[in-house]
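re the bet — no i am not wrong, look at it urself. input seq straight from the record:
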Amino acid sequence: MSETEALVAVMTVGMVCGVPILGLTLRFSLKPLVDAYIRLREAQLASSQMEQLRERVAYLERELERRGLMERPPAIVSQLSMPESVALQLKDRERS
């Protein structure tokens, strides 16, 4: 076997075995980083969408108040103003 043939054989084996191993190594090492980046972008998008939704609801409430269609501000339901049976049902749901 000549020197050129030996070099070609080593390069061929290296390409056939080395490239897939290198690819798998990169995939498994970069996957957590890419997943974390994707979750970060999703969280940023969700928070901006939530802020836009809050602004939209506030705008709609102001418009309703301005036009006199909203007689009173939205009531916050407390457990004190609920009948006892409803309060007990809520507590039972929290336990399960």
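see?? The chain has a mean pLDDT of 81. told u. also DSSP finds two helices and no strands in the chain. so pay up
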